[in-house]
Design a protein that fits this description.
Length: 20
């Protein structure tokens, strides 16, 4: 679903920001 994809992308961004 589109919503699931968006949530997945947001989660990845949050992880990248957390690591950076």
């Amino acid at each position: 679903m589109v919503v699931e994809i968006i949530n997945f992308v947001v989660l990845i961004i949050c992880v990248l920001v957390g690591v950076a």
